[in-house]
């Protein structure tokens, strides 16, 4: 779902398009869909890498993924996770 601001005139609502696992996004989203389609090809390999972890945990980088770490730590405090 993409949420983007609009001007004074609200555009008409569009119908929801549900895609199956192997359906391409590009015909529905144009250039953005092509980027998503490229990323989706990598997901099985990423999942294999996550499952191959000896510790069973995801290792986030100290600098580049600090926002992800902070988000999850903050979320954990809201849901009282230890």
Provide a descriptive summary of the structure in words:
The protein is mostly helical. It is built from 3 helices and no strands. The protein is extended and about 50 Å long. The two termini are 31 Å apart. 0% of the residues are buried. The model has no long low-confidence stretch (mean pLDDT 84).
Task: Supply database-style keywords.
0% strand, mainly alpha, 82 residues
Task: Summarize the model shown.
This protein is mainly α. Helix content is 46%, strand content 0%.
Which descriptor suits the 3D outline? extended
> Termini separation (Å)?
31 Å
Largest sheet: none
| Rg estimate, integer Å | 18 Å
Strand content: under 5%
Total number of beta strands: 0
Integer average pLDDT: 84
Low-confidence stretches: none
Percentage of residues in helical conformation: 40-55%
Order of helices and strands: HHH
Count of discrete alpha- or pi-helical segments spanning 4 or more residues? 3
User: Which structural category fits the helices and strands?
Assistant: mainly alpha
Reconstruct the topology from this structure.
Layout: H1 26-29, H2 31-51, H3 66-78
């Amino acid at each position: 779902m993409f949420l983007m601001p609009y001007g004074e005139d609200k555009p008409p609502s569009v119908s929801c398009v549900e895609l199956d696992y192997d359906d391409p996004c590009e015909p529905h989203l144009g250039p953005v869909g092509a980027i998503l389609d490229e990323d989706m090809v990598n997901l099985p390999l990423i999942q294999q890498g996550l499952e191959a972890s000896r510790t069973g945990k995801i290792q986030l980088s100290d600098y580049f993924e600090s926002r992800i770490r902070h988000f999850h730590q903050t979320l954990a405090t809201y849901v009282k996770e230890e």
